[in-house]
């Protein structure tokens, strides 16, 4: 994916409601887990465990969280608010 395309996707995601972002995340999570597991399989020659794939996903989430802006609610905060 080109940088321009990635930026266009980011702009589109910013236009989604928090609920739509949560639905997008729900849609993408299994794909990300599979992609990470497949990449690790190709690099190491052995299958990555599901736990390792989830840990990688959580690590990615932590890196994303580190870039959160204080003036914009996070997806997690929004989901928690919706569940109350």
Outline of this structure?
The protein is mainly alpha-helical.
Q: Report how far apart the termini are.
A: 38 Å
Q: How much helicity do the residues have?
A: over 70%
Strand content: under 5%
According to DSSP, the number of beta strands is 0
Structural class: mainly alpha
Mean pLDDT: 82
Oligomer status: single chain
Q: Label the overall shape.
A: globular
What is the CA-atom radius of gyration, in angstroms?
15 Å
Count the helices. How many? 4
Topology as a string of helices (H) and strands (E): HHHH
Major sheet: none
Could you name the ranges where pLDDT drops below 50 across 5 or more consecutive residues? none
Describe the structure.
- 77% of the residues lie in helices and 0% in strands.
- It has helices at 3-15, 18-44, 50-65, 75-83.
- Helix 2 packs across helix 3 and helix 2 crosses helix 4 (75-83).
Topology:
Elements (H helix, E strand, L loop, with lengths): L2 H13 L2 H27 L5 H16 L9 H9 L1
Helix pairs in contact: 2-3, 2-4
Keywords:
84 residues; mainly alpha
